[in-house]
Amino acid sequence: MKKILPALIAHIAVILAIVISFGVISVTADRSASGNEKFTGVLERNVTLHVLENNTAKEQGYLKELLDSFNERYKEYGIKAVDANIDQYNDLEQSGPFGYGPDVLYQANDAVMKYVDGHHILPLPLEKIACKDLVSENAWSAYEKNIDQQSYTFGVPVNIQQPLLFYRKDLLPADWETEWDDNKNGIPDMIENWSALYRFSKQIRQESGGKKYGYMQSLCDSYFSSGYLFSFGGYVFGGEDGTDTRDIGFDKGESYKGAKIVRQLASVMNMECTEFTVSDNRYSRLAEGTYFATMTTPDVYTMFIREMVNKGYTEEYAKENVVMVDVPQVPVSGDLEDESLGFKDMTVMGGVNGYAISSYTSYPNAALEFVNYATSYKMVKKRYELLGISPARKDVVDEIGGLHKEINDNLDGNSIYVMPSVRATAQIWPPMENFFSLIAGDMLENKNVYSTDEALKNGLKKVSKDAYDAIHTLSGS
């Protein structure tokens, strides 16, 4: 026993040393996040940067083009960027401290900014960001946070995300100009307002015997469905900057009208809308003509084109007939069958995707060089060409114009409700998804539990309470 005890003590000492060493890593990361002193401007040489990108960028070849181009440009410094080869939703908080997280990560603002509290990402030196004056204030604000009365920026915007309507132009009725253009402005009514799209969808489903659909969407997806609530006064978090997690407002204003619209839309769909099934099959179903329209973000436009080509269409035909437009207007009445009060623009949930730098990188200056390169005019335009994104850079937007100019204007005009850049945002999705799934299923199964305004109001109050409990009560805060 006397011989075992010293060995045991020594073993414990080794374990403690390991634990302390990881603690040092965490403390180092924490301190580095209090300022941007790591960015000295002196490039590290002969290093490899691991870059986390999204799956679409990989599948469509953009990431390869970016890496190849960057590596050619910086080979004289021995700097090489490679695919991090980890899941696009990798949690830096878990992987970073143990050395297998990325040096640079590309994600949505809410995903990036959740790492600020734990100091897992570095505040960036704005004076060294090349596109600083080419991105709007509203896009930058998605990556800003005040700490100890000082403002820090933690990400560089690349593209603006908002829901868009994708539809097949070649599936419009032949008589749309006479029968589906009430205001005679040369734009089909069903892509201008939700009431007309609802009526058109009902007609398609009836005429096809339920084999085809007009508008189809995973209504349970709260990213897309929450916009109906926002359009009638609902919100995520209150407070002056929209980050007060003790004020949750899904039930505020007349948000129940938005919930009513979601429930009505379900009536022209099938039970797949209560799950994420439509999100998975929308590319193929639109390509085969089973769906006339769906809603998603601009960065997956090329996925629709690719699927059309897979179905036998030429790329030219696909690009001509798969059209993405701003979301239709909502009826002021909050009832798709009541157009008497006219229509108003919809407020949609959106976000800003961009690059951030891990606090755990050993090469902050090389990482910053990569971020500047990836957000350059050349690469943002290439990302637009290959992926169909809506760029945040004003010079690229000014060149391509059209819908992408509208999206930038929507962000500047606050008709895009940018996802709050706080950790608690992750807690809002489950109760929202559950509620939207419930009311869609309620309509399709004729249960009529949520058939009244009062029932919808009460349902939304429960959503707000459940989100509050998930953030505060259940987390112990």
Short characterization:
The chain is α/β, with parallel strands linked by helices and 477 residues long. It has helices at residues 4-32, 55-59, 62-73, 92-95, 109-113, 137-141, 176-179, 194-207, 222-230, 255-266, 277-288, 301-310, 315-321, 364-374, 377-387, 394-400, 403-412, 429-444, 453-473; strands at residues 47-52, 79-83, 104-108, 144-147, 150-153, 156-161, 164-168, 213-215, 237-238, 244-248, 291-296, 322-326, 330-331, 343-344, 348-357, 416-418. The strands form five sheets. Strands 1, 2, 3, 6, 15 and 16 form a six-stranded mixed sheet that branches. The chain has a four-stranded mixed sheet with strand order 8-11-7-12. The protein has a two-stranded antiparallel ribbon with strand order 4-5.
Strand content: 15-25%
Q: Can you give the helix content as a percent range?
A: 40-55%
Q: Report the principal-axis shape.
A: globular
Count of helical regions: 19
Overall domain count: 2
The rounded Rg comes to 25 Å
- State the low-pLDDT regions, or none: 1-35
CATH topology of the largest domain: D-Maltodextrin-Binding Protein, domain 2
CATH superfamily of the largest domain: Periplasmic binding protein-like II
What's the overall average pLDDT, rounded?
Answer: 91
Query: Would you count the extended β strands for me?
Result: 16
Structural class: alpha/beta
What is the first-to-last residue Cα distance?
47 Å
Sheet having the most strands: 6 strands, mixed
CATH class of the largest domain: Alpha Beta
CATH architecture of the largest domain: 3-Layer(aba) Sandwich
